[in-house]
Every structure is written in structure tokens, then in C-alpha cells.
Design a protein that fits this description.
Blueprint: H1 8-31, H2 38-48, E1 86-90, E2 93-97, H3 100-105, H4 116-130, H5 133-167, E3 177-183, H6 190-203, E4 208-210, E5 216-217, H7 218-224, H8 234-237, H9 249-254, H10 262-268, H11 278-294, E6 297-304, H12 311-322, E7 332-337, H13 340-345, H14 352-368, H15 374-381, E8 383-389, H16 418-438, E9 445-446, E10 449-450, H17 457-465, E11 469-471, H18 479-487, E12 492-494, H19 496-502, H20 511-517, E13 521-523, H21 528-531, H22 537-549, H23 553-566, H24 571-578, H25 592-595, H26 599-625
Parallel strand pairs: 3-6, 6-7, 7-8, 8-9, 10-11, 11-12, 12-13
Antiparallel strand pairs: 1-2, 4-5
Helix pairs in contact: 1-26, 2-26, 4-17, 5-18, 5-26, 12-14, 12-15, 14-16, 16-17
């Protein structure tokens, strides 16, 4: 491919197609009230001949506000009043009506979302675009150029960058860092979990922890599992993922079971059990206390909603409020596993439409009638986004087209394809976000696992719909998609240690390659319980990456700043951690006294990015005049 050339005619067509792809992403992201770079918007609207006069503040999603010191995070006295709105799911998407009469007439409120036919048209365009030889040749040449240019930049400017950094009052350790991808059920270390289990056994051996058939105490549970609490070790806990989990997602999932016992997972790592998720809540609060001691690390733990029953939301909200799980260092994300097929085989749900209803109807009800759903409304204030999770390498045997069954007709014992899941998640989040903004409530970001394994087209679906993604390993297989992600600065939370145990050896991780080229990457832990050994797993992730990829202080501070930007920390927190102008893209938005990131580096990144956008702008605008 390096020997191939792109002709002038090819170049014009490539720029027009890139312009269209960027415009499509802007349309979907703006529609769902998520984040899109204003610099890209300015270039795109200039090509259209329109004036772009929006401010960065106007375009920001309504993320949960900062809970002030002394303020009750569970307060209910400031909830909005109930409305008479009605909600009905039609063809897999929630529709909101002004009243029951409007619902009978099927006259919904104007809450925009992308229709499935439009999505499929745009999705097919992006998929066909990334399959074209010419655009892949061009994208690879540009990305390779960025790698070489970054190396040259480092040769010429590294000493000056380090001089800037050394003169800053900050250092890497005191810069804020956010673990942008971490699962709550594995956010503690193995040693921490083991210590908690031993203490719980010592303090409450006679506590009744199960009542499936007969009441079972903690001591009896351990006895039934042939476990002696005082003899347990981290090795016997058997939660660390090793070579046996490589390319084996089933084996990996079993590592969530301490000592291989699902009973212990239910007791210690679940929110819904016979003790009301008390042990899990205590472990999470201890993790929050550790973060408070560290001061400079924040996390975004994922809690699960499965779609088995609409009652899941009520139970999770009750657990959150009753157990007082709130921590200023944790920003909560809801993950929805793509396991409809399991529930259908067990006749838990009759069809995919019911699965979607179980996920979204309670959210709309709480948004419309907060006074009748106080605990869930409080809980939603602390939720910042939604994740879609599962093994991407599973093949559904289905292609998402206009002929695909509507969700209410998808009643077969097989899961739909990844893009089907992604579209219906995105469409409902879009309607919900627009309704919540209308009501003055916080909105949500869509942050799916994507590109860890499976088909390249997963990344095309996420390009249209997701605010940011986790993993993104397969981007290295598609220069065109990688270039699109670069141009739009789509944030990618990468976890090289996790990938090393599952899909890709650490030395082959594309993390540093993406970083060199200028993609917006951050480091995250994924599952400290399974992959890390210390009390500071995110610092462990940075330390290993620094050694393997020879990162200097400026590199690590850039990655840390990326993590804060792509996180769902409040505007007030980001202003405090990054400076008053953090919303501005480029050196103007960087405060070195907060980020410890050299202005030379910020200028290089911004100028290189604008040069690429300008190439598309000049060529596409010229082509439009013809």
C-alpha cells in the first residue's frame, strides 16, 4: 500500500466522502446531545457556506452537576413536578405523548431521533466508504505521515517540552486522571476483596446470607463450599486472568467467581441478593475511600442493567440510595450486556422489544413523573452514560437491514447483530436525552465497548452513534476508519493490560501507535480485580505503559488530560482540573499550571489536526463549486 498513489481525481472524491462521513457523525451526535468538536463543525459549516456561531458551552451535554460539600446527594426536595405525559414503545423506540388522548391518536411530541431507514442508509455509506481502496490508501499515507511527523517533533522539541513541564507547578502525580473504563464488580484489587471476605466472615459468621431453600449463614456457606476463611489466599481466590483466558471469553467471565463459586459472586459482587447488596456496597465505599486518599484519581464504574425485568431499575436505585454508595470520585455508568438470547431461551422475555422496554420504560417514567419515582430519579442524577457490553467475537448470523424484524417481532432464540443493538440503544437514549433536557435534567452519553474483537463494521456503527468507545483495537485493521476517528477526535479508552489477557499481547497493542498519530486515547483498567496487583490500578496501568512504550512525563500528562476531557466529570470539576478555557480546542484551552502539559505539544497536535481538516475543506469546497 505504501507504494500506491492517490490521483487528483481520487483525492477530490475522497475529500467529498470524508466530508460527508464527518457531517453524518455530527448529525447523529448533535441529535443525541453528545459531544462533537467545534473545530470540526466550523470546517464542515464553512464547506456548506454557513456561518458557525455556536459557543462551546451551548453544545455541551447536561452532565450531572457537582455535588457541593455538605449537600445531600440523595435529596428529593428539588425534584421536578410530575407531568401527564404518556410513553409507548413503537417499533423498538420510545414515543412520548402529551396525554393519553395524544397517545390514542398516535400524535407524539417532537423529540427527534434517527429513523431506522435513515440510520441504515448512513451506516451503509460508512461501511462502503471504509471498504474503498483509494480512501484506505490515502488514510494510511496520512496516518503514517503523522507517526513520522510526531517522531520528528520529538527529535526537535522534546527538550523544550520537558523544560516547560519542569517549570510548571504541577507534576504527573498531581494531575487529575480518570479511569474512563472500569467495571464496578471488579473495581477492587484481589487482595482487597480477599481481606473484605475474611473480615466479613470473622465479624458475621452467623449472619444469614442465603434463603433459597433453607436459611444459610455465612459460616454454613463457606462450609458447603469447603472453604476455610483463615486459610484463603489471593491465589486460592483464583480471580487473576492469565494465559488460560487468552481468546477464551467464557473462561474470562468465570474469573468473576471467587474460588470458582458463583454463590460468592452473588454475595460479594452483586447489588440484588439476600442481604440487599450490602457487602458489595461496602467494598465500593472502601474503594471510594482509597480514591479519596489518592486525591488525584477518579473512576467511572459500570453497574449492570440486564433487561430481564423493569423492576431492575427500582432495585438498583434502592440499593444505591439505601447503601449510600455515592462518592465524589466515582461517576456511574450503566452497562447493558448484549445477552437477549439467554433470556429468550429461558422465556424470561418474549421478544427483543420487551427487552428494550425493560431497559428504557422505567427511565422515561422517572423523567416524566419524578415525584412517583423518587429514588430512581435521584439515582439518575448520578448516572452519566450507557455502555453496551459482551463478547464482540460472537457471530449472530444476521445482517441488519430494512428487512430485519422489528424488535417486537424479534422473538427467535438468537441475539441480533451488534449494529442492531447499538442502533436501538442509541435511538432510545436520543429520545430520552431530548426529553430530559426539556425538563432541565442531566442527559446521558453513549459509551459502548467496541472494536475489542469481532467485525470492523462494529466500529462504523459506533462512529455514527457513540460519544466515545472502550478498546478500539480493531481500528488498526482499517486505516479509513482510524482516520475518521482521528479527524473527529472520537475518544478511545484503552486497556492494554486487559487486552493482554484476552485478545492481544501487550507488545502488540496499538495504543502507542494511536497516540503517536494523535487519536484521543486514554488509559483505563477495565477490571483491576482480574488484571492488577496494587491498590492504585490506574497508576499501575500508566507505569507499565510508560515502561513498555517509553512514555515521558509530557506524554503521560497528555494522556491524563485526554482522560479528563473524555470523562463525564462535571463542568465545574473540569474547570478546576484543566482551567477555565478547557472547552477551547488547542493551546488556548490548555492551562499548563493545571494539566502539566507543554504548550508546544498542544500547539503541535492542534496545528496538525487543523491541517488535515483544511485539506478536506479546501478540496471539498472546490469540488462543490464545480
Amino acid at each position: 500500500m505504501n507504494g500506491l498513489v492517490v490521483t487528483v481525481d481520487d483525492f477530490q472524491l475522497i475529500c467529498q466522502d470524508l466530508y460527508r462521513a464527518l457531517s453524518i457523525r455530527e448529525k447523529y451526535i448533535r441529535l443525541s446531545l453528545q459531544r462533537f468538536p467545534t473545530t470540526v463543525s466550523q470546517f464542515l459549516h464553512s464547506i456548506d457556506g454557513n456561518t458557525w456561531n455556536k459557543t462551546e458551552e451551548e453544545l455541551q451535554p447536561t452532565l450531572p452537576p457537582l455535588i457541593k460539600k455538605g449537600e445531600d446527594p440523595y435529596r428529593t426536595d428539588n425534584l421536578q413536578e410530575n407531568l401527564e405525559y404518556q410513553v409507548v414503545m413503537r417499533d423498538g423506540v420510545m414515543h412520548v405523548y402529551a396525554d393519553k388522548y395524544a397517545a390514542e391518536r398516535n400524535d407524539p411530541k417532537n423529540l427527534p431521533y434517527s429513523k431506522v431507514d435513515n440510520f441504515l442508509k448512513d451506516y451503509r455509506f460508512v461501511v462502503s466508504l471504509i471498504a474503498q481502496g483509494a480512501i484506505n490508501t490515502y488514510a494510511k499515507q496520512r496516518l503514517d505521515f503523522h507517526s513520522s511527523k510526531f517522531k520528528l517533533h520529538m527529535m526537535l522539541n522534546e527538550l523544550n517540552e520537558m523544560k516547560e513541564v519542569k517549570e510548571s507547578p504541577q507534576d504527573f502525580y498531581s494531575c487529575r486522571k480518570v479511569d474512563t473504563h472500569i467495571h464496578a464488580a471488579a473495581c477492587m484489587s484481589a487482595r482487597h476483596l480477599l481481606s473484605f471476605m475474611k473480615h466479613s466472615y470473622k465479624d458475621e459468621p452467623d449472619r444469614i446470607v442465603s434463603s433459597k431453600e433453607a436459611s444459610t449463614t455465612l459460616k454454613e456457606l463457606f462450609g458447603a463450599l469447603n472453604l476455610k476463611a483463615n486459610e484463603l489466599t489471593v491465589d486460592s481466590l483464583d480471580v487473576h486472568a492469565g494465559h488460560e483466558t487468552f481468546q477464551r471469553f467464557d473462561t474470562f467471565n468465570s474469573k468473576y467467581n471467587p474460588m470458582g463459586a458463583s454463590e460468592l459472586r452473588d454475595l460479594y459482587l452483586k447489588t440484588d441478593n439476600n442481604i440487599g447488596g450490602e457487602y458489595f456496597a461496602k467494598v465500593l465505599k472502601e474503594v471510594g475511600s482509597e480514591l479519596l486518599k489518592q486525591r488525584y484519581v477518579y473512576t467511572e464504574p459500570r453497574l449492570s442493567i440486564y433487561g430481564r425485568s423493569p423492576d431492575e431499575w427500582r432495585k438498583l436505585a434502592e440499593w444505591f440510595c439505601k447503601q449510600k454508595v455515592y462518592s465524589e470520585f466515582m461517576k456511574w455508568v450503566i452497562q447493558v450486556p448484549r445477552i437477549y438470547d439467554i433470556y429468550r431461551k429461558k422465556n424470561i422475555v418474549p421478544d427483543f422489544g420487551k427487552y428494550l422496554e425493560n431497559i428504557f420504560v422505567p427511565l422515561f417514567e422517572a423523567t416524566i413523573r419524578p415525584q412517583d419515582n423518587k429514588e430512581l430519579s435521584v439515582f439518575l442524577r448520578h448516572i452519566t452514560g450507557f455502555d453496551s457490553v459482551d463478547d464482540e467475537s460472537k457471530h449472530s448470523g444476521h445482517m441488519f437491514t430494512e428487512d430485519s424484524p422489528k424488535p417486537q417481532h424479534w422473538n427467535i432464540e438468537r441475539s441480533p447483530t451488534y449494529s442492531y443493538y447499538i442502533f436501538y440503544m442509541y435511538a432510545n437514549i436520543t429520545v430520552l436525552n431530548n426529553l430530559r433536557r426539556e425538563r432541565g435534567m442531566n442527559t446521558f452519553l453513549f459509551r459502548p465497548h467496541c472494536g475489542e474483537a469481532g467485525a470492523i463494521v462494529h466500529l462504523a456503527a459506533a462512529f455514527l452513534t457513540a460519544d466515545n468507545i472502550s478498546h478500539g483495537l480493531n481500528l488498526e485493521k482499517s486505516p479509513a476508519l482510524q482516520y475518521l476517528y482521528y479527524l473527529c477526535k472520537v475518544p478511545i479508552a484503552m486497556s492494554p493490560l486487559s487486552n493482554n489477557s484476552l485478545f492481544l499481547e501487550y507488545s502488540k497493542s496499538p495504543f502507542y501507535d494511536y497516540f503517536e498519530k494523535g487519536l484521543m486515547v486514554s488509559l483505563s483498567t477495565d477490571d483491576p480485580l482480574l488484571f492488577h496487583f496494587t491498590k492504585e490500578p490506574l497508576m499501575e496501568e500508566y507505569a507499565i505503559a510508560a515502561q513498555v512504550f517509553s512514555l515521558n512525563t509530557c506524554d503521560m500528562c497528555e494522556i491524563a488530560r485526554n482522560s479528563v476531557l473524555q470523562s463525564a466529570l462535571s463542568h465545574e470539576e473540569k474547570t478546576s482540573f484543566l482551567g477555565d478555557n478547557y472547552l477551547k480546542e488547542g493551546p488556548e484551552g490548555n492551562d499548563i499550571t493545571r494539566s502539566n502539559l507543554a504548550q508546544i505539544r498542544m500547539s503541535y497536535r492542534y496545528e496538525t489536526w487543523c491541517y488535515e481538516l483544511n485539506l478536506i475543506y479546501q478540496t471539498a469546497k472546490l469540488a462543490n463549486k464545480k
